[in-house]
Amino acid sequence: MQTKNHQAATAAANTADTTTLLLTSADAAQMLGICTNTLAVWRSTGRYNLPFIKVGRCVRYRLSDLTDFMTHRTALHTGQVTRHD
Prior knowledge:
By secondary structure, the chain is an alpha+beta fold.
């Protein structure tokens, strides 16, 4: 089930410049199919090269960065999967 924010972000992505569209951690996690706690661990450990923006205590992800992250991790078979990060 998509959140209203995620639905709005998806709709906005169709008309907005995706380099400036920012998503919350919850929306980014939902887009990636992971838990928000997993994103927090990735940020603190640097496990993956997934850029984020932090203003005060707020963390945001660019839609374009999430799309790039998923594109670079897409494989056609398991022999093709390599560790880039």
